[in-house]
Write a structure and sequence with these properties.
It is found in: Cytoplasm. This protein is an alpha/beta fold. The protein is 39% helix and 17% strand. It has a domain of 36 residues. The protein contains 14 helices and eleven strands. The two termini are 37 Å apart.
Length: 343
């Protein structure tokens, strides 16, 4: 495994994908078809389920999203597929193991034996034949804290909610999130990977708990600003119940700009059916311009509701890497500046 995260062809593009959960799983499933040099940078604020239990009992970083990223990058061999299935297997019953996944327990054990979460992930990656690397966003477990409106009788009064699960499931409106501690360290290897990348992908995923945290870690945010990589922001297919109820695509961008003033990306990818042609696309293009980005309207939806199709995402990322002229890519190009429609 090389220092920048890849073990494959040195001529392959180095792709860094940031996020967590099912959104990151979709991105990794897409980019692994484009390169053997893939680095996943994963959020570490989960406090629910098996991850929350292990975090509380052992003081480790929550392993669940890291486990999913490893499974997404597992080798397409019988052994790799077998170990991916084993990693994802969750114990049933009602005993002490109920609800735990094998992969979470494996990462917990490796972390205790090796004394280093990054070393633990590298060892698990070797077991699965991963081409690339899975890294935590920070070497310490983080907490998410949010200002939420609509929980008090006076709609002008906000309440502070703490914890990823609480923020994701609140019936109120999340306006702003913070990390605790407020100035967390970034994983050194993640910062290095972003600096060496050819393509950086942020999103999709739970906006407040999987996407925004990456720009709230100071060293990681600085690396994202300084990298010479092409940067792509992938928007969700629609609002998520709880976190982003009622959010438009434009609103997602406004929230990101509020949390990361001056942040820049080259492209914003949005599913063509989720933002129909008309004034909504105009508003989205103006919001993207704040980031210096154009908007790529593409068919990226999968068969499962609210899930991206990895092969469709891969086609978009491949075109970005190739620097293909937009006029050559389009079957139809929107006449509005900064807005492109792909089939």
């Amino acid at each position: 495994m090389s220092a920048d995260g890849g073990r494959g062809d040195d001529d392959a593009p180095h792709i860094v994908a940031l996020g967590g959960g099912h959104g990151l799983y979709a991105t990794l499933s897409a980019v692994r078809s484009l390169s053997t040099r893939v680095t996943a940078v994963v959020t570490v604020a989960d406090d629910g389920g098996s991850s929350g239990r292990l975090r509380a009992e052992l003081g480790m970083i929550p392993p669940g999203d890291l486990r999913m990223a490893l499974a997404a990058l597992a080798a397409e061999t019988p052994q790799g597929k077998l170990w991916a299935d084993i990693l994802q297997h969750r114990f049933g019953g009602s005993g002490a193991l109920a609800g735990h996944s094998v992969g979470n327990l494996l990462l917990a054990g490796l972390s205790e034996v090796l004394g280093d979460p990054v070393a633990a992930l590298d060892e698990a990656a070797r077991l699965l034949g991963v081409d690339g690397r899975v890294l935590p966003m920070s070497p310490i477990a983080l907490d998410i804290e949010a200002d939420v409106w609509g929980l008090e009788s006076d709609p002008r009064v906000s309440r502070v909610i703490r914890g990823q699960v609480a923020v994701a499931t609140t019936p109120g409106k999340v306006r702003r999130v913070r990390l605790r501690p407020s100035d967390p360290p970034a994983t050194e290897q993640a910062v290095t990977a972003v600096g060496a990348a050819d393509l950086v992908v942020l999103g999709p995923g739970s906006w407040f708990s999987s996407v925004l945290p990456h720009v709230l870690v100071p060293e990681l945010a600085s690396a994202l600003r300084a990298t010479e990589a092409r940067k792509v922001l992938v928007l969700n297919l629609g609002p998520e119940p709880g976190e982003t109820t009622g959010f438009s695509a434009e609103r997602h961008l406004h929230v990101l700009s509020q949390h990361a003033p001056g942040f820049r990306v080259h492209h914003v990818v949005v599913d063509s059916t989720s933002v129909p042609p008309g004034s909504e696309r105009d508003h989205l293009a103006r919001a993207a311009a704040v980031f210096g980005a154009d908007v790529i309207h593409a068919d990226v939806a999968g068969a499962t509701p609210h899930a991206h199709d990895p092969s469709k995402l891969a086609a978009v990322f491949a075109a970005v890497l190739e620097g293909t002229d937009r006029a050559d890519l389009d079957s139809s190009t929107d006449s509005r500046k900064g807005s492109t429609s792909w089939p």
